């Protein structure tokens, strides 16, 4: 009799294990890192409060003068930090683009602070002084981008904007260089510092258009890539 019920018992235990695994998978938050200061958690876009990381398309110079892809390095660093443990993001305020501003903790550690301390982001002094100390320490230790030459992300964006506006890119209205593209992914707008900006073409006959600001693009129903 005991032998007869062993396979049934094993099947029941296996079934229970599968149910437990599925429950854990469903409970686990979905996470996607967009760049060095933005992530999508359970479908919600979150902007890490108080920091500004190099843009994905941005490059820097190492201490030896070698060009580095510091924007992509910042994204990789955030992916690693966010995966270090259970992720919790605290904050309720929204920025001008509808993203939630938050301080995120992985396994209880402030990853906003870590990104700055490791030299993968700047303290965003224009909006917060929360991580000024971490930046000062990173500069002192020549950590990350502070080991060589780096342009502040806000300066990089301003320069890209200026160049795109002056170039009158593909007949763009002056000072309105944002490309409102329509693809299989929907209505996506591309800023001059977007990695795909240069290869994106605008066809007004398809309903595509130019925007003068990200606010304008969002209000018209377009969204940022990523």
TrEMBL record:
SUPFAM superfamilies for this protein: Staphylococcal nuclease (SSF50199)
Signal peptide boundaries: 1-25
Residues covered by the TNase-like domain: 32-148
InterPro entries cross-referenced by the UniProt entry: SNase_OB-fold_sf (IPR035437), Staphylococal_nuclease_OB-fold (IPR016071)
Keyword Signal in record: yes
Keyword vocabulary terms for this entry: Signal
PANTHER family linked to this entry: BLR1266 PROTEIN (PTHR12302:SF26), EBNA2 BINDING PROTEIN P100 (PTHR12302)
Name the record gives this protein: Thermonuclease family protein
């Amino acid at each position: 009799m005991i032998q007869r019920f062993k396979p049934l018992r094993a099947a029941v235990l296996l079934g229970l294990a599968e149910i437990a695994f599925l429950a854990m998978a469903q409970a686990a938050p979905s996470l996607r890192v967009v760049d060095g200061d933005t992530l999508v958690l359970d479908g919600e876009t979150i902007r890490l409060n108080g920091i500004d990381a190099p843009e994905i398309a941005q490059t820097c110079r190492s201490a030896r003068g070698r060009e580095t892809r510091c924007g992509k390095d910042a994204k990789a660093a955030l992916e690693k930090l966010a995966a270090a443990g259970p992720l919790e993001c605290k904050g309720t305020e929204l920025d001008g683009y509808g993203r939630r501003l938050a301080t995120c903790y992985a396994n209880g550690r402030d990853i906003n602070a870590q990104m700055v301390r490791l030299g993968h982001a700047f303290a965003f002094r224009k909006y917060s002084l929360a991580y000024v100390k971490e930046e000062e320490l990173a500069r002192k230790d020549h950590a990350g981008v502070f080991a060589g030459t780096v342009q502040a992300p806000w300066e990089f964006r301003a320069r890209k904007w200026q160049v795109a506006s002056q170039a009158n890119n593909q007949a763009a209205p002056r000072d309105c260089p944002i490309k409102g593209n329509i693809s299989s992914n929907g209505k996506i707008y591309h800023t001059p510092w977007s990695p795909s900006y240069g290869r994106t073409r605008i066809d007004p006959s398809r309903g595509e258009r130019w925007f003068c600001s990200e606010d304008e693009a969002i209000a018209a129903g377009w969204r940022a890539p990523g």
